[in-house]
Amino acid sequence: MSSLFLRTLREDPADADVDSARLLQRAGYIRKAAPGVWTWLPLGLRVLKKVEGIVREEIEGIGAQEVHFPALLPREPYEATHRWEEYGDNIFRLKDRHGADYLLAPTHEEMFTLLVKDLYSSYKDLPVSLYQIQTKYRDEFRPRAGLVRGREFIMKDAYSFTIDEEGLRKAYQDERGAYERIFRRLGVDYVIVHAVSGPMGGSESEEFLAPLAIGEDTFALAPSGKAWNVEALTTPAVQDVDHSSTPAMEARETPDSKTIEALVAQANALYPRSDGAEWTAADTLKNLIIAVKHVEDEEHEKPWREIVAIGLPGDRQVDMKRLEAQFAPAEIEEATEEDLKAHPEFVKGYIGPMALGPQAREKEGIAEPARYLMDAHVARGSAWITGADQEGMHIFNAVYGRDFESDGTVEAVEVRQGDMSPDGSGPLSFQRGVEIGQVFQLGLKYSNALGLKVLDQNGKAVPVWMGCYGIGVSRVLACIAEAHHDERGLAWPAAVAPAQVHLMATGKKAEAFDAAEQLVSELEERGIEVIYDDRPKVSPGVKFKDAELLGVPLVAIAGRDTIANGTIEIRNRDGSDSVQVPAAETAQTLADRIAALR
Ligand code: ATP
Ligand code: MG
């Protein structure tokens, strides 16, 4: 420690917003270079290499081969997949001296696809899996939480290439298994969450989330232990309601009732319920008009705009992100005034099922009836107060399935604590987490966009099935620190600690320092990593404080007892299990304790 490039800080850095960022800086593992950009110091780099080492071992263990791509890449491949635009402000773009466009890669699907296309041409070459551990760049809107959301960060990204979908499924399962081993070895808790595909577009995908309060992701947990990303949640089929005693529907005057609140007040004032109870927002069905911005497809040469109506219970809010996930790759937005004008059958504030979907198609005079999708919480047979398509009018006792139909169901509303879980195992609860990894069945998206084909057994050129698999290596390091620390400092799991033993010599007498140095060589001979605090004229108090801050799992002290009794004290980082051991046996005792930690 007298020569280690290290300065521990007594004070918390002013802008550290989470414990891991605070402690990693105070303990001299990282320094801030710019918002979301970090410098690795010797101790931090040691931990990083250990995390990388475990990732590497497990990923090589499933047969993937390591390569390394540059971070600085030309625009063209990203143009071909539309990601040059799709990433928006999230990528760092730059020009070279000749004016050519470049980017700092946010992820590398394009480059891996092109590399395999460049070198492979036959089904006999497949399957193959490649990976790298490499620096990525994303111009995050809000870098935060130290290494958790950086603008420069380290990712392990792996890609599988297989001749068919079955091969993809196997590669996906292999990778998923490796992730479980990696996170277990790293000492981070994880929840595997069903995800929907983001801008990558694909099929099956799962995220590995570290359940931490500092996380920005919310996931829903079922009593069965299964978990879902909020966007991926599906509502289990709701039971039909018996409507045999529901009276016929009836249009009634409800003046000035454009909002659900006003409608409920009018209904209670003018048409009290027969059972004496109050009408509530849950008795109303609101119909929201959205615009779906479709991308071009087989039928449409150009992107096109579709007006769609969504029916949802009046006591629930629409969740535009969840709704949008179901129209992917299309995007959605609320319909504009212009959209509404093109549909004279819509009476703003009073839009009802009769002007939508199947009902509208049966009517004369509606030029282009809007598709009508029903939120999955609306049961068939249930009765509603809903718009009558006339100013100041609503229909009462409109029964879904009896009086009106939809064109299908959709997940439209915000999910709530207590909603039934997709697998029917009980009510959902919500937790916060940090995404530490993701596994993704890409399918044919990139091979089609970039023309990656091989000849199959019949000599026919076929696109290659791809999967991609990311782990946020620097982020996961922060999550380990977040999960393993106390108020005095870091407390690393042995597998990633910068050393296994933090040895200090205290006092002024040479004997303690001599005994400590002897122990250092014995430990190093056994291949045990040791941080040795040999600083003269530094008080024991300061040395203890630093040991607790740095967070090495075992602490050994050569001092007064060494001189008096020839013993060295061994204790755990948290101060527990303190013992005095004869100096000659200390190395063995430490080796035993380390073995027990693993
Ligand atoms: P997020 O939703 O947190 O922005 P993402 O889903 O965009 O992440 P991916 O494209 O799936 O991220 O990247 C793979 C992994 O890289 C993520 O699972 C995460 O662990 C890590 N990662 C992504 N963005 C960052 C970042 N800004 N800083 C550190 N690690 C990141
Ligand atoms: Mg992700």
Automatic annotation (TrEMBL):
> What are the record keywords, sorted?
Aminoacyl-tRNA synthetase, ATP-binding, Cytoplasm, Ligase, Nucleotide-binding, Protein biosynthesis
Q: What is its EC number?
A: 6.1.1.15
Residue ranges of domain Aminoacyl-transfer RNA synthetases class-II family profile in the record: 31-493
- Relay the domain remarks: Consists of three domains: the N-terminal catalytic domain, the editing domain and the C-terminal anticodon-binding domain.
Query: Subunit info?
Result: Homodimer.
The UniProt similarity line reads: Belongs to the class-II aminoacyl-tRNA synthetase family. ProS type 1 subfamily.
Q: What is this protein called?
A: Proline--tRNA ligase
Give the source lineage, highest ranks first.
Bacteria, Bacillati, Actinomycetota, Actinomycetes, Bifidobacteriales
